[in-house]
Design a protein that fits this description.
Layout lengths: L1 E2 L2 H5 L9 H7 L5 E6 L4 E9 L5 E11 L8 E11 L4 E6 L3 H7 L5
Antiparallel strand pairs: 1-6, 2-3, 2-6, 3-4, 4-5
Length: about 110
């Protein structure tokens, strides 16, 4: 999975559809994305969109959370569908892709 710093994608002036930031985000559309939140949960779903504040919307999302506090405890999962993950709660963001795709997406980290 490729690590994505979406804060850098939504910052700055993203004037319109011709913006380089919009072009970068279009590369992420409909890719599977794993998003971690500050309370330890993870959400795996298909990237649908991101707004100027950095909130991410995933479709067909599944929530994964630890049943107990210990690191070796099993993960519990539940299907959620369409969800919005607020930017202030997000701790990590990764895109699922092949090695070749990772190389082409490296420009997203800049």
């Amino acid at each position: 999975m490729q690590d994505v710093h979406s804060d850098s994608l939504v910052s700055g002036n993203s004037g319109g559809d011709g913006s380089p930031l919009v072009a970068r985000l279009r590369k992420l559309l409909f890719r599977r994305m794993l998003v971690g939140v500050s309370d330890g949960r993870f959400f795996l779903g298909v990237f649908h969109c991101i707004d100027k504040q950095g909130n991410i919307i995933l479709q067909d999302a599944v929530e994964y959370r630890s049943v107990r506090q210990s690191s070796s405890s099993p993960m519990e999962q539940r299907c959620l569908g369409l969800i919005l993950i607020p930017a202030r709660c997000r701790s990590s963001c990764h895109v699922e892709c092949s090695i070749d795709e990772q190389m082409s997406l490296l420009s997203l980290n800049k």
